[in-house]
Amino acid sequence: MDKIVVTSRRFFMKFPKLEYFENRAKEIGATIVPVRAEDEKTLMNELNDASVVVVIGRQIDRRIIESMKKGKMILAMQVGYDCVDIEAATQHGMVVSNVPVYCTDEVANHAIALLLAVSRKIKLLIKETSQAKWDYNVAKPIYNFKNRVLGIIGLGRIGRALVPKAKGFGMNVQAYDPYLHDDIFNFLEVKRVYDLDDILKTSDYLSIHAPLTHETFRMIDENAVGMMKKDSVLINTARSRIVDYNAILKAINEGRLAGAGIDVMDVEPPDKDDPILNNDRIIVTPHIAWYSEESLKNLMEYSMDEIERVLKGRRPRWILNPEVL
């Protein structure tokens, strides 16, 4: 019987009940073993004879991969896959897959929600009205969205889903993605920006939708923030380490940036005294951009479908290292 180990720092928050996974596993002659990511000793012991490890957020490095004597697959149960050492997995003959399509619309919607809320100073206004203060002047300046410029960094599935939503508010959309053909930009009727510096300098709103790679790590650093418009807003629903939040906070406090909407933090949950949480011009949500009841259902189904394909000897749909087959 194949063993499927499921581990994550957020696993028990997202999936307090495992009945769906357990039932699907039984159908394919497998068993589910949940392990808290912090319990390193138990995790290593369980992986010794596991066929599959399913991970959310936790690093699966070479050391862990080498402990999987019967390993067939590593599934990043999320869109991002920076948590997996794909090179090591390939060297040990293991398939690596992710689940890239379960929450595309949800994340795009959340990016728009953060953009609207930050731009309209909603956090500040809620604070003011909760104290029975009734003066719109505290929120000045607020600008109309029409003809404002949204810059998208990373025009993958989520970035593309964001385009028509932004256009619905009358925004002009431009994007930076050096890995795509011009045809994609033309099809979406999006202005292509070829240089990162240019999109930083010309966007009123900047929304991050790139994967975390060596290239994008701290892409939005102090130097990048310094290029942004004084009244611009940054939105990050991608990966926290793409952005230097200290640089963002400093710029907002110094009046060099209007605000930020953040769904991902370097440490989750953050310390309650983190100054980012207590800034009226920064809205932070608890890594929830992915979530709706529909996307949760999709995530569970798509994950088990992908595992079933591998355990039954079929080609996985979202394989990240096809050379291993």
Q: Characteristics of this structure?
A:
325 residues; alpha/beta; Rossmann fold; 2 domains; 17% strand
In short:
It is built from 13 helices and twelve strands. With 325 residues, the protein is of the alpha/beta class.
Folded structure, characterized:
With 325 residues, the chain is of the alpha/beta class. The protein has helices at 11-14, 19-27, 40-47, 62-67, 86-91, 104-119, 122-130, 157-168, 182-188, 196-202, 222-227, 245-253, 293-311; strands at 2-8, 30-36, 52-56, 73-76, 95-98, 149-153, 172-176, 191-192, 205-208, 233-236, 259-262, 282-284. The strands form 2 sheets. A 7-stranded parallel sheet has the order 8-7-6-9-10-11-12, with helices on both faces. Strands 2-1-3-4-5 form a 5-stranded parallel sheet, with helices on both faces. Helix 6 (104-119) packs across helix 8. It starts with a strand and ends in a 14-residue tail after the last helix.
Strand content: 15-25%
- Which sequence of SSEs, written as H and E, runs from N to C? EHHEHEHEHEHHEHEHEHEHEHEEH
Which structural class do the helices and strands define?
A: alpha/beta
Please report the total strand number as a whole number. Answer: 12
Return residue spans where pLDDT drops below 50 for at least 5 consecutive residues.
none
Spatial sequence of strands, sheet with the most strands? 8-7-6-9-10-11-12
Name of the CATH homologous superfamily of the largest domain? NAD(P)-binding Rossmann-like Domain
- Compute the number of helices: 13
